[in-house]
Amino acid sequence: MRLTRPRAPRVRVPRPLALLLLVLTVAAGLGAPSVVRAAPAPDAPPPAARPEPFGAACRTYVQGSRVTAYCHNPYPDADRVRLHTDCAMWWDLDADALPVEVGPGQTVRLTDRCWQDVRTVWVSHQKAV
Question: Which end of the chain has fewer CB atoms at under 10 Å, N or C?
């Protein structure tokens, strides 16, 4: 003997009516006023002091295998600049020049070269002590 569960009667809702109910439900949810309120912000810490401007402005020029960088420091603190040259060929040694101090109002010229082509050039900065 096989027992079967009694089935609940199915209520058939016409498709247009079901669609209308869905649209009304969504519209009611969107139109309801929001009851979520933001908590008051905690006391903000005092603003940090603005850092002093620092760093020499450097322009680099590549002409063939030679690299030149001009760095000018318009700020009152000295800057130690260093020229880095990355050569294109794997057998050509990359170079990191010794740091040069650029005092306030001074301009320095840094040079370097590769045996053949230059891939990239950049200048790093460090605060002088």
Answer: N
